[in-house]
Request: fold
Amino acid sequence: MKSEFRAKRTRAKIHGTAERPRLSVHFSNQHITAQVIDDDKKVTLAYVTTVGGKMTGSMSEKAAQIGTEIAKKAKTAKVKKVVFDRGAKLYAGRMSALAEAARKEGLEF
Reply:
């Protein structure tokens, strides 16, 4: 219940544009998904997931790997600045590991 309110509050303030697309992150119990989305055109510019991949390690380690990969794919799509969409999750643990890894690769939040 609280997470639904948190997600709505977070997403009400965030909108991805062509200059600053939205970096949306989703965590399930076993997998992590990250997308760079241009909300104006309703287009996904970059997408990375652990589903079907061969990433090993803890969820925090996987989050860091996903952060690195999404930053590389965003650079390929000529995106340097993004708006971070954490959804219903708090910015701690796995979420911060993903964000820090993306920042180290040059993605600006």
About this structure: Residues 59-76 form the longest helix (18 residues). DSSP finds three helices and four strands in the chain.
